[in-house]
Amino acid sequence: MWQGLWLLGLWLVVVPALAENGAGNSDAEARLLLDKMTEAGRTLDYDGVFVYRRNQHMDAMRIIHKSEAGRERERLISLSGPAREVIRNDESVTCIFPDDHSVRVERSRPYQLLSSQFPSSVDKLSDSYVFRVAGSGRTAGRDARIVEIVPRDDFRYGYRLWLDEKSHLLLKSELLNEDGRPIEQFMFTHLDIVDSIPDSLLEPTINGTDYSWYENPDDSHEPASEDDWQPGWLPAGFSVTDRSHELLADSPRPVHHMVVSDGLALVSVFIERLSEQDAARVGPSKLGAVHAFARKTDDYQIMVVGEVPAITVRKVADAVSQQP
């Protein structure tokens, strides 16, 4: 059960996000640059290699992204560690694990790797973050503008971003903790921005005929009633953006799932009814910048997962309650 919750929570929250602080003209310029970055990540065709560093662990991956007629397609290939391949389009996400000879197909979620979960206009984030332009830099052989995003409280992280001066594509990002120190880093080491990506580059390397296939049914994600569970406390600027019942791969029962967000940071709340045989998990846990906190109330297990400080997931978890 908990492995499934971690994977789902990580899919929702582990996306290279974006930056920290600002005022005056710098604030306005930073907002404009971030709006352009969001648009570039969704509309450009590119083929590149990036590294993702968390704690002392580093992964290298190739990403191929194509945008055509308002629709996006994307392919990720691991270049280090276990062999993995991910094919994403607007309808589904297909994860291929050659070492296990298995394929898992999930419905596509509205979160992307490089264009982030930023809203169409960053003005919506001004109550929660301050923006500033922090100079210039260079990464992946490209000149970049550095933009910082600073949270206005201690319940969310900050970011530092490097945006390509010509295309405005995100080249590098650092997730910053409460002390302003990097705790995660994403960075392109090679990047080609092209007019059009051939469809052949978006096809998987294997045909999967001799693989085991696991596919979530269409009813594995169903809307949930607002009258069921409620967050009793959320940080300023956060609100519930999605409710559903999720049928996770390693759980025999649907899990009530709430997503809460301030427009940038995402937190997932999972509630599952326990059977007499189920052992409840209680207390904090951590994987890189992702914190989780679990508690038991009556016959239910509540687990909150998010790429936010530990205090945030704990306070959210402690305040979740079932409506009478």
From TrEMBL:
Keywords: Periplasm, Signal. It is found in: Periplasm. Residues 30-205 form the MucB/RseB N-terminal domain. Residues 1-19 form the signal peptide. Gene3D superfamilies: Lipoprotein localisation LolA/LolB/LppX, MucB/RseB, C-terminal domain. InterPro entries: MucB/RseB_C (IPR033436), MucB/RseB_C_sf (IPR038484), MucB/RseB_N (IPR033434), MucB_RseB (IPR005588). Pfam families: MucB_RseB, MucB_RseB_C. CDD domains: RseB (cd16327). Its main location: periplasm. GO terms for biological process: regulation of polysaccharide biosynthetic process. Residues 225-320 form the MucB/RseB C-terminal domain. GO terms for cellular component: outer membrane-bounded periplasmic space. It comes from the Bacteria. GO terms for molecular function: antisigma factor binding. Belongs to the RseB family. This is Sigma-E factor negative regulatory protein RseB. It comes from Methylohalomonas lacus.
